[in-house]
Each structure stands twice: as C-alpha cells, then as structure tokens.
Amino acid sequence: MKVIQHVNHDIKNNEFKTIPTNNSSKVWGRSVYVYSYCIEYSQRLNQKELLKNIKNSFNFVNHNSDYSYNFVLSDFYVKDKMVFLDIAYTSNEATLEYLQDLAKIKKAPKE
C-alpha cells in the first residue's frame, strides 16, 4: 500500500516490517473499510514529528493517486517500538459515517 510505504520512508526504517493486526472492518461491519497496520521500528521516534510526517504522507498519496477515494488516518499511536495505524478508505457512505462518528467521540467532553 502506497500510504504505508510513505510512512515507512518517513520513519526512515531500514528494516520495514508490517505486523498483521486485526482487520477493523470486520469488527465494524456494514462495509466499513478501515484496516489496521503496524510498523516495527528500531530507532527512537519523536511522536509529534512522526504524526506530522504521516499526515504529509497521506496528503501526498491522496493528491497524487488515481483512486476515486482518499485514505484517512483514523487512529495512530506508538507503543513498544511499534507504530500502529488505522487507515480508512473513504470509498463508501458507511466508512464516511464511521469517520463522522469517530470525530464526534473525539470532540465529546471527557468525564
């Protein structure tokens, strides 16, 4: 996948290794196209800089692709020398509704 290749390049990861993770689309059902990816890395990462670079990668791929849809980063975190990404493919209404629901949850006041 082009987005993952760009993210890997941004990490400057010489030992690119994606780790199979859960397919979020199976959890959400309704043809929600969200997939989880994990990239193992070996050096220290600045998470803010990494997130900025990942967003730039998404912008680059979305702007320069022939796809009729965009890729959206729906979740991101770093843990135990692994970068975890959930990537939504905005190819249908169910996925767009899922992203809208996520945005509402993120804006909701924390108790």
UniProtKB/TrEMBL annotation:
Protein name: Uncharacterized protein
